[in-house]
Amino acid sequence: MGAYIASGTVKKVIEINPFLLGTMAGGAADCSFWERNLGMQCRMYELRNGKRITVAAASKLLANTVNSYRGYGLSMGTMVTGWDETGPQLYYVDSDGTRLKGNMFSVGSGSTYAYGILDNFYRKDMSVEEAIDLGKRAIYHATHRDCYSGGINNLYHVTKDGWTQIHAIDVNEMHYEFAEDKKNGMNMSI
Question: Which of 38, 93, 125, 157 has the greatest number of CB atoms lying within 10 Å of its CB?
């Protein structure tokens, strides 16, 4: 049995709640189901405790949940991000129950292409516009070079007020935009 791509336009960002996002890499059904399940668990926490769950606690819930199914063939690598009382947070969680905190991750089969851009151009002092452009270019390179990474560049910005979707752009359109930049000698110093 070979690789199977059901859709190149699947939305690879899952909106868990107005303050939490998850990404999808691996089995779409596994990612979608367990991150939606996480949304339900986060809502239950909020109802029981009268406050929003932290990003750390949400990522721990997801890691513990998928860890209980370890060895059952789940295929999932995800980033869980959001903003809580401690500020912006980012966690990597996979189907083995691994959970890592960091300030930058790229997950999935196209991640090596995205890391090539991120490692070269990421700076801690970036403006929001520079960070959006960096994210756009990193996702573009992952999706353009890797057929399993989908064909839509979905970009979000997370703040203390929640997340907002910046854009959902077809990578083919971006290809021509970046080709024109290259042709005109524009520097990608971000």
Answer: 93
